[in-house]
What we know:
Blueprint: H1 2-28, H2 46-50, H3 64-67, E1 79-88, E2 93-105, E3 108-124, E4 141-157, E5 163-176, E6 180-195, E7 198-205, E8 210-216, H4 218-222, E9 236-239, E10 242-252, E11 257-268, E12 277-278, E13 283-294, E14 298-310, E15 319-332, E16 335-342, E17 353-362
Antiparallel strand pairs: 1-2, 1-17, 2-3, 3-4, 4-5, 5-6, 6-7, 6-8, 7-10, 8-9, 10-11, 11-13, 12-13, 13-14, 14-15, 15-16, 16-17
Amino acid sequence: xxxxxxxxxxxxxxxxxxxxxxxxxxxxxxxxxxxxxxxxxxxxxxxxxxxxxxxxxxxxxxxxxxxxxxxxxxxxxxxxxxxxxxxxxxxxxxxxxxxxxxxxxxxxxxxxxxxxxxxxxxxxxxxxxxxxxxxxxxxxxxxxxxxxxxxxxxxxxxxxxxxxxxxxxxxxxxxxxxxxxxxxxxxxxxxxxxxxxxxxxxxxxxxxxxxxxxxxxxxxxxxxxxxxxxxxxxxxxxxxxxxxxxxxxxxxxxxxxxxxxxxxxxxxxxxxxxxxxxxxxxxxxxxxxxxxxxxxxxxxxxxxxxxxxxxxxxxxxxxxxxxxxxxxxxxxxxxxxxxxxxxxxxxxxxxxxxxxxxxxxxx
Length: 363
């Protein structure tokens, strides 16, 4: 247990120290935007989204390239692949994900992940009325707004038994039809430690900060306006680091049942947010997840995350709300099917989101 408690203290010290440094950077940069590249924080994988995104200490398949690259070395199969599709806002927004991971040797592994979040077939009606003042539907064109990310990950065993470290380099590409494009580059780093029934994890996203540079096609905007002041200009967005501390404990239940309890503490450093712990120094969003398994074949999952304070009105009091999620999973012969239901119909969110992911591990 000596290594376990030592690593626990190490994770806490790293998370706090890195958080202090980046929080100071956020305070010194008044114009730093919140929610830059926020599409990378939605989450991937039916298992993760069914458990409230508590995966930093648990990810041990190809999805580890996203959640915590250190987990790539703990996957059960030699080769692992995952596909995911989900639709948000009644199907308007499509969220797609694919990943693959494999070992290089007994002490190292690699992985690759691709993420796309987009809205397609948006009608451009600026030219709907022709030069004679008549409506001409043939003049309507369509475009897409989409965000892409490519993550290349590497993991290696170091130090005491049960400790793995990993990192992911990521390339971000965003486009708004032919109106604007953006490129960004960043780096994530993570660690996992497993001791008995305990699992610990630390993930540092955008640890070096991620700068996304936008390039605006001014000519496309001039086609519909003579006001040059309303034309956006090329600029850059900065994504400051966020840190996630995770812990999980696996319990053997009577019969062939097991229970896995997990929690993540997500710390953002880009200013005050509406989270459970909210300060100008650092904001902390706790996440909780539970997975009940039967014979390592069928799983029932639940989670809660996104705790927010809802302001009251003249007739209601201030209250707290959270985003619950549910999920199920099945595995057989290396094939995994995971389905999650997130954004359940509660007072502050009236829409549901169904996430389906398919994984396959093989030798």
